Amino acid sequence: MEQTSDPGSTQPEPDSSRTDRTEKTWWQRYIGFPLIWKFGIALVLGVIAGLIVGPPIATIEPLGDLFLRLLQMLVIPLVLVTLISGAASAAPSSLGRVGGKVFGFYLLTSVVAISLGLGLGLLIGPGTGLDMPSTGEDPEKAPPLIETFLNIFPENIFQALAEGNVLAVIFVAVIIGFAVGTMAYSEDARLRELAEPVKKLADAGCEVMFKIVRGVLEYGPIGVFALIAVVVGETGTDSLLPMLNLTGTVYLGIALMIVAYSLLLLAFKVNIARFFGAAKDPMLTAYVTRSSSGTLPVTMRAAEKLGIREGTYGFSLPLGATINMDGTALYVGASTLFVANVSGVDLSFVQLLEAVAVGVLASIGTAGVPGAGLIMLSLVISQAGLPFAAVALVAGVDALLDMARTMCNVTGDLVVTRIVAQTEGQVEEPSRVRKRSRSRR
């Protein structure tokens, strides 16, 4: 009886468990497939779909918008908890030193980007031979610099959170983190005891946000496909060809900035292969989403892979996503010369420097979202006394230019963060990073 009953009673179970194991294996394979390849495949398929379908491909735009919304949803809470955690983890004395280094390197890379944009613009002469468009809507004007400065200090923190005022959130988070850090390093045992649960709460918030980020990124390839397909479908090759000169100038400038970043990393003895191996994910994400703020969760993951401790990247990256605009500075320099050439206006070198300086200062108050570069360009055009109609030509391919400059912005943030971490001894060994990553899966 045992010989006849056992096979019959146990036969269905192996089939069921084998099916479960197969389904789980396929999902694990998808999760384990490198994000860069998922995004790369989605990008190529999006280009093909956009060229084949054309403007009607815009019907899938909500799929891309959903991806952007999910990323934007994470920005404010991620900035808040990571800055509080990062500022609270560092001693007050070292936090001031780190902040000075971060600002100094951000300024250095911006100066290099401005020089490249102006130099390539003067050398290549983008816009020469193109006709001035007869009509064109004026881009949205950038806020006055004094208003940008005052907006850093919110009257109501909850209103700043609701409105997505990143500068105000950064200010409040740094102040809270600094206060908690002061308590944590205080000689008073009671203050140290009170600070501990706040630090743990901020650390837990970071872990929760990173888990959510991982889930959002699994939807990323669908969003990337939709975003690229819509851009290519609406722009097409016909509208891109007359702007090839400007597009080539900006993309060449971005390539040279990547080289400059590499040289800067080498100067501080940073492993280039390991850096770009981790940076490729946020670089591609920034390219397709065109949002420095939206890419922030991915950039933070890359910093973690590089072994940068949270006390450094939790402060540097959110700040860089708001104020460090290397790619945008380069774009503004080249585009200003483009508009001047199209308009038939000769600008002196001093005028160009003044215009670009104003644009870079305005970038501090411009959100790291798609299309923000046109707002800054409008301010520069006003400063230089150039007609706004020529901006319509730039707007026609701004999405393609925005992709490159946003990628440069994000790369610059990560480069500065890695260098500052190196100088502060805030970089973990690769073996410890891999061990921690496995424990979080």
Notable traits:
Proton glutamate symport protein; mainly alpha; 441 residues; single chain
Element layout with pairings:
Elements: H1 2-10, H2 12-32, H3 35-53, H4 61-89, H5 92-124, H6 145-150, H7 157-163, H8 166-184, H9 189-240, H10 244-267, H11 272-289, H12 292-305, H13 310-323, H14 326-343, H15 349-363, H16 372-384, H17 391-396, H18 398-424, H19 430-440
Summarize the structure in words.
One of its GO terms (molecular function) is symporter activity. This is Na+/H+-dicarboxylate symporter. Residues 1-21 are annotated as: Disordered. The chain is mostly helical. The chain has one domain (54-440): Orthogonal Bundle (Proton glutamate symport protein). Helix content is 80%, strand content 0%. The protein is built from 19 helices and no strands. The chain has helices spanning 2-10, 12-32, 35-53, 61-89, 92-124, 145-150, 157-163, 166-184, 189-240, 244-267, 272-289, 292-305, 310-323, 326-343, 349-363, 372-384, 391-396, 398-424, 430-440. Helix 4 (61-89) crosses helix 13 (310-323). The chain is globular.
